[in-house]
């Protein structure tokens, strides 16, 4: 039974090892303009995944041209010539309807796109051609799929789990749209992490030794392609209780965030583009307007991006585009001063995110130790100048502005994955947009609209909240939406979109209350459990009616049967949203403190939270008050008839109706999945065809060249050469004229036919090329074996002619000598026969035959070498010293007889004494068990001559 248990345990361990061997996780920093991918796999910690151009970041661009889909740099090349067929800057369009101000700005920036509203959802849809449409989720899913391919190529195995960065100002609709895009790409999202939180984590994990129990405050200023964010973060070491003891871990907390959704490098690039376009029109080189030509506009946009980067390091630079419009070239010198005038109003907005972040955190710049620059936009000198004037301290430039977010996210991915263990670094993000619940309540003066805040501004999450409705006796409704957004500009509030999130309808309230009516029952109200998860997405976990029943102490146990208790216990084990009820005398659970830093707050209907003290009516995670009786003091008697409160719960049916931008569903979702699957299959088929076509073209080219070389032409007969030449020429003509419409299978068949035709030819050339080296190796082995044979023969002649003292037997020496002789004779004969053959004849003396002969000779030599290594000579016999004998006394007569018997047949005990006193090795001990012992050797150590200790090795022992 123990053996069976052990085998089961070993199998389980092996299964775990096999399961974890190929595990790998990734992170995707999905920005507006660029995408970065990082992986963590066994033996590869936090590595950037390179794209096919071996670059560390990839442009977010997807192009469709002539039935071919391209990504990244290839897509941008297509976009310069056909801008309408290349889609870029997709992040800002996620989760938005067509009438959103952000979409309107996108249409103004890129007027050549044909954007139509989704007939069901009203979201953005690109009309690619009369038959093809793409929604934003599909295009983002394509880029995420490409990111997954990059991760798989870097890791060498499957990668399905990811942490994806999103802008911190993403609302509920935008976050859910990103999750759905990842689902369309076949990626399991471990978490959506805010980009500034990922940057802060990357900053902290390499400086964890610098933090202590005192909070340190820093500001991250991130200006990317389309937006700018200022974030205030605190670092400190906190103590948490885990596994029964207290541990200290570093923790980062997001305290304040300010952002500008439209301030970034893209807007600067667009202003440069328009400036260059106006200058070109002013030159009057052509009557046509450059702004009405999408291709010319795309060329100017690309040149403006290059010019912006150069002006960040130079005072002036020339912008030049060949064949901009009507084959007219364009060249213009632009100074940094002119660029700064174009963007003067943008630079004035640099300070706004900083001021908003300070206001949100209720901190001042005095206690912020450092301002860290993040994002490519912060390289612009004027941006740094304006920022320096606001913060009044030196700007930190010691962070990798391009890769800090993706590396912080991949650290989080490794932490969330089951296959890796990392040093704990606690992160507490903050709610950017406060969320409230709105419901109606009847009063004497009429219906009153009541608002209760669930998550205030910068509340940490993940977190659970419970809202209690204690005035309703029938079915009712409530709405969930965004609360007052005082810190935001009115224009930004419009960018968020619909402020109402969901409408919740409850049914069965009256029936549940009637079911629990009774003199000893007290209705505690309807409790709605809300949860904001790690990705910042709000969920309604469940709704229940809570009733408190007063029963005598003796009847409390009878209130719930043992079977019911068992069922409740099992149900709690498999409940994800509800944690076990907290007892006052117990410590706070580990997941509340560390893994899931949640606050359990209960806001009762009609009660306001005391803002000064921050106190609320707190309950356990199950939403009920803890009325468990405290243990009595020692010596105090407990009244068994004292009443006890028992909490009963009844689930209430709830129906949620989303009021924000809806997600893909039903037929639309199935259609998107089928479209992406078809595109992926087409890409796979195209890649396979391209690789096979390249292999076929290379084979034809190499074969034609080989026919012209002496080495290959001499190894083929004239008839065979003519046959090969005709076949290769025929395939070459087919490639030039008819291969355009061929598939991968057709190309593969032609390649197989050519390889089969030339197989024997290439084999002969290889044999002729490698045969001299193989013969040289065989001759060297024969000479070495001959020298070895002579050496061991000399050693055998010097040894005593006894079986025990000889290393090698006569048969062994004769066998090696015969093998050497036969191999040498065979080689000479085989070489003679091979030289008689033509070069195009099938060779008889092949490399394989030579290898077999060398292996046979090597086996014989190695056998004797190994035997010599393990051979040990037998120990020399020890001479006995003459002992003067005296007549034994009658008392010693019995002892003398026993001692004489031991000399004739030594006992096991005396043998052990001899071996322990000597220096005999393990191999000698083994020989002593096989060979008979020397009867003349004494067992008395005192009688051994000092010059020859027992067990001394012979003079040939080192051979």
Which features would summarize this protein structure in a list?
disordered C terminus; alpha+beta; six-stranded mixed beta sheet; extended
Largest sheet: 7 strands, mixed
Physical arrangement of strands within the biggest beta sheet: 19-18-13-14-15-20-23
Number of strands: 31
What proportion strand?
Answer: 15-25%
Structural commentary:
The protein is of the alpha+beta class and 959 residues long. The protein is built from 27 helices and 31 strands. The chain is 42% helix and 23% strand. A hairpin with a 2-residue loop joins strand 5 and strand 6 (68-71). The strands form seven sheets. A seven-stranded mixed β-sheet has the order 19-18-13-14-15-20-23. Strands 1, 2, 3, 4, 11 and 12 form a six-stranded mixed β-sheet that branches. The protein has a five-stranded antiparallel β-sheet with strand order 22-21-25-26-31, with no helix packed on it.
Could you give a short description of this structure?
It is built from 27 helices and 31 strands. The protein is of the alpha+beta class.
Write the layout of secondary structure elements.
Layout: H1 2-21, E1 25-30, E2 34-41, E3 44-48, E4 58-59, E5 61-65, E6 68-71, H2 72-81, E7 86-88, H3 101-109, E8 115-117, E9 124-129, E10 132-135, H4 136-155, E11 161-166, H5 172-184, E12 188-194, H6 195-205, E13 216-223, E14 228-242, E15 245-260, H7 265-282, H8 294-311, E16 316-325, E17 328-335, H9 336-342, H10 344-348, H11 352-361, E18 368-374, H12 381-391, E19 395-396, H13 404-416, E20 426-430, E21 435-443, E22 446-455, E23 460-461, E24 463-469, E25 477-482, H14 490-496, E26 500-507, H15 509-515, E27 521-532, E28 538-552, H16 553-559, H17 562-573, H18 590-593, E29 601-604, E30 643-651, E31 653-658, H19 666-706, H20 710-713, H21 718-737, H22 744-798, H23 810-835, H24 847-870, H25 893-904, H26 908-917, H27 922-930
Parallel strand pairs: 1-11, 11-12, 13-18, 15-20, 18-19, 24-29
Antiparallel strand pairs: 1-2, 2-3, 2-4, 5-6, 5-7, 8-9, 9-10, 13-14, 14-15, 16-17, 20-23, 21-22, 21-25, 24-27, 25-26, 26-31, 27-28, 28-30
């Amino acid at each position: 039974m123990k053996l069976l248990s052990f085998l089961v345990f070993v199998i389980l361990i092996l299964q775990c090892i096999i399961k974890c061997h190929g595990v790998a996780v990734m992170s995707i920093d999905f920005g507006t303009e660029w995408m970065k991918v990082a992986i963590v796999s066994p033996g590869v910690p936090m590595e950037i995944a390179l794209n096919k151009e071996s670059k560390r970041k990839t442009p977010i661009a997807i192009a469709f041209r002539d039935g071919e889909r391209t990504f990244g740099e290839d897509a941008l090349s297509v976009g310069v010539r056909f801008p309408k067929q290349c889609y870029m800057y997709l992040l800002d369009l996620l989760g938005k309807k067509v009438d959103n101000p952000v979409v309107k700005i996108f249409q103004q920036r890129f007027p050549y796109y044909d954007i139509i509203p989704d007939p069901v959802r009203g979201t953005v849809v690109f009309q690619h051609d009369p038959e093809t449409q793409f929604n934003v989720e599909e295009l983002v899913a394509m880029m995420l799929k490409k990111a997954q391919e990059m991760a798989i190529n870097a890791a060498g195995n499957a990668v399905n789990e990811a942490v994806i960065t999103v802008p911190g100002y993403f609302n509920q609709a935008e976050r859910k749209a990103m999750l759905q895009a990842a689902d369309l790409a076949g990626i399991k999202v471990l978490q959506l992490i805010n980009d500034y939180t990922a940057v802060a984590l990357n900053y902290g994990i390499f400086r964890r030794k610098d933090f202590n129990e005192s909070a340190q405050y820093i500001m991250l200023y991130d200006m990317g392609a389309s937006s700018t964010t200022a974030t205030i973060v605190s670092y400190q070491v906190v103590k948490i209780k885990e596994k029964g003891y207290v541990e200290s871990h570093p923790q980062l907390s997001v305290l304040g965030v300010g952002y500008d959704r439209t301030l970034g490098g893209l807007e600067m690039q667009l202003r440069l583009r328009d400036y260059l376009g106006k200058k070109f029109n002013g030159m009057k080189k052509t009557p046509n307007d450059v702004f009405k030509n999408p291709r010319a506009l795309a060329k100017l946009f690309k040149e403006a991006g290059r010019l912006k980067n150069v002006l960040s390091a130079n005072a002036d630079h020339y912008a030049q585009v060949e064949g901009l419009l009507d084959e007219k070239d364009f060249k213009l010198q632009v100074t940094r001063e002119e660029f700064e005038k174009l963007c003067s109003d943008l630079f004035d907005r640099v300070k706004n995110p900083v001021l908003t972040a300070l206001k949100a955190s209720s901190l001042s710049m005095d206690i912020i130790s450092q301002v860290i620059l993040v994002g490519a936009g912060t390289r612009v000198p004027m941006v740094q100048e304006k920022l320096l004037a606001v913060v009044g301290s030196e700007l930190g430039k010691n962070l990798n502005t391009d890769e800090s977010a993706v590396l912080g996210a991949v650290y989080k991915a490794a932490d969330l994955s089951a296959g890796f263990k990392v040093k704990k670094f606690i992160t507490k993000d903050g709610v950017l947009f406060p969320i409230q619940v709105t419901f109606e309540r009847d009063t004497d003066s009429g219906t009153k609209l009541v608002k209760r805040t669930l998550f205030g501004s910068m509340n940490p999450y993940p977190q659970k909240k419970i809202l209690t409705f204690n005035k309703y006796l029938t079915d009712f409704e409530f709405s969930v939406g965004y609360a007052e957004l005082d810190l935001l500009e009115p224009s930004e509030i419009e960018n968020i979109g619909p402020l109402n999130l969901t409408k919740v309808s409850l049914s069965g309230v009256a029936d549940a209350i009637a079911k629990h009516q009774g003199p000893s029952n007290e209705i505690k109200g309807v409790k709605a459990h809300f949860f904001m998860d790690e990705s910042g997405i709000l969920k309604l976990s469940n709704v229940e009616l809570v009733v408190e029943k007063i029963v005598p102490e003796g009847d409390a146990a009878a209130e719930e049967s043992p079977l019911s208790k068992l069922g409740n216990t099992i149900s709690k084990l498999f409940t994800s949203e509800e944690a076990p009820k907290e007892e006052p005398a117990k410590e706070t659970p580990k997941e509340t403190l560390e893994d899931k830093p949640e606050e359990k707050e209960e806001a009762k209907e009609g009660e306001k939270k005391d803002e000064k003290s921050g106190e609320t009516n707190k309950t356990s995670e199950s939403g009920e008050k803890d009325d468990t009786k405290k243990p009595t003091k020692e010596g105090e008697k407990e009244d068994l008839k004292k009443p006890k409160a028992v909490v009963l719960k009844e689930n209430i049916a709830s129906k949620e109706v989303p009021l924000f931008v809806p997600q893909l569903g039903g037929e639309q979702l199935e259609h998107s999945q089928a479209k992406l699957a078809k595109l992926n299959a087409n890409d796979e088929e195209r890649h396979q065809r391209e690789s096979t076509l390249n292999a076929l073209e290379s084979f034809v080219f190499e074969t034609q060249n080989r026919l012209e070389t002496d080495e290959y032409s001499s190894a083929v007969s004239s008839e065979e050469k003519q046959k090969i030449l005709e076949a290769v020429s025929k395939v070459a003509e087919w490639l030039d004229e008819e291969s355009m419409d061929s598939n991968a299978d057709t190309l593969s068949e032609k390649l197989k036919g050519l390889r089969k035709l030339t197989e024997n030819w290439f084999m002969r050339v290889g044999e002729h090329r490698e045969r001299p080296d193989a013969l040289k190796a065989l001759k060297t082995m024969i000479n070495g074996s001959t020298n070895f044979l002579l050496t061991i023969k000399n050693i055998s002649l010097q040894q005593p002619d006894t079986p025990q003292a000889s290393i090698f037997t006569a048969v062994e020496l004769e066998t090696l000598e015969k093998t050497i002789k036969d191999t040498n004779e065979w080689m000479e004969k085989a070489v003679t026969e091979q030289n008689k053959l033509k070069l195009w004849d099938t060779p008889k003396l092949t490399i394989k035959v030579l290898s077999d002969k060398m292996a046979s000779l090597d086996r014989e030599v190695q056998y004797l070498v190994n035997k010599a290594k393990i051979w040990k000579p037998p120990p020399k016999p020890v001479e006995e010293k003459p002992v003067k004998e005296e007549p034994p006394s009658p008392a010693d007569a019995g002892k003398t007889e026993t001692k004489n018997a031991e000399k004739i047949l030594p006992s096991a005990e005396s043998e052990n004494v001899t071996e322990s006193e000597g220096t005999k090795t393990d191999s000698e001990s083994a020989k002593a068990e096989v060979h008979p012992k020397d009867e003349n050797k004494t067992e008395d150590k005192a009688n051994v001559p000092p010059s020859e200790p027992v067990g001394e090795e012979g003079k040939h022992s080192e051979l």
